[in-house]
Write a structure and sequence with these properties.
By secondary structure, this protein is an all-alpha fold. It starts with a helix and ends in a 6-residue tail after the last helix. It has twelve helices and no strands.
Length: 254
């Protein structure tokens, strides 16, 4: 969908009902909880090695005996410098992997929602060079915006968090947009539906946590994806899908 068309659709989007979106989210979760579990497990498998890489200077220093908090040995200057050098690049890489998986997840959700089955989508469908470069740039913008909001204290952080929730869903259905256009669309939609999104994400997150804990904690693996579904449904009801473009960008599973 073209950038100006997206902005126009958002500007003219109808008022959405909290209860309606929440009810649809529960119904959609019943059909897609296995995909949510797969998303979580795949994310862990791909992200944990990157987290280990991020903290590798500390691990190396602890292994060599140069760093031991219990005995009061501080982290060596060399390890601090190494951590500082790799922190932002690895953080962006982690964000890129997460966005690629989330975008694939939303395509799967769309197919189950509209077609009743997964036909042309995969969690890994955006792990291709034509998409990863753009996702890396979007991740960079998202992290910069988040860091700037953190520097400005609590209120800006709360505000930018909602638009950034839409990054993956906007990219999933509009991969032809530039990184800058993606962020602009997210903020346009996030600003337009801020309170609705905030309320739905908070309630869905609390419900997912409560149900997960009631299922002896292990249930969190199954319910963790529930808060992602209101984001999809808000985009669907506020913007909608261009059927021709979704078919054009459909990619077969690996």
């Amino acid at each position: 969908m073209k950038f100006d068309v997206l902005l126009n659709k958002i500007a003219q989007s109808p008022r959405l009902d909290f209860g309606d979106i929440f009810g649809k989210s529960i119904d959609l979760f019943k059909k897609t909880w296995t995909q949510g579990l797969l998303l979580l497990l795949t994310s862990l498998v791909l992200v944990i090695p990157l987290v280990i890489l991020l903290y590798s200077p500390m691990f190396v220093s602890a292994f060599t005996g140069d760093f031991d908090p219990e005995t009061g040995k501080d982290l060596p200057v060399g390890a601090i410098i190494a951590f500082a050098v790799i922190f932002i690049p690895v953080l962006i890489l982690i964000q890129t992997v997460g966005l690629a998986l989330m975008s694939g997840y939303y395509k799967i959700i769309q197919e189950i929602d509209l077609k009743g089955a997964v036909q042309n989508a995969s969690l890994f469908m955006f792990f291709k060079s034509q998409y990863l470069g753009k996702l890396f740039t979007i991740s960079f913008f998202s992290i910069v915006i988040t860091l700037l909001a953190m520097l400005l204290c609590v209120i800006p952080m709360f505000y930018v968090a909602i638009p950034l929730y839409f990054v993956a869903v906007v990219f999933a259905f509009n991969p032809e947009l530039s990184a800058k256009e993606n962020i602009q669309v997210c903020f346009k939609l996030g600003h337009k539906k801020w309170w609705l999104t905030f309320g739905l994400v908070m309630v869905a997150g609390l419900l997912a946590e409560m149900v997960g804990l009631l299922l002896c904690g292990i249930g969190l693996l199954f319910t963790a994806s529930f808060p992602y579904l209101p984001i999809y449904l808000i985009y669907k009801d506020a913007v909608g899908f261009d059927e021709n473009e979704t078919q054009t960008h459909a990619i077969s599973e690996f």
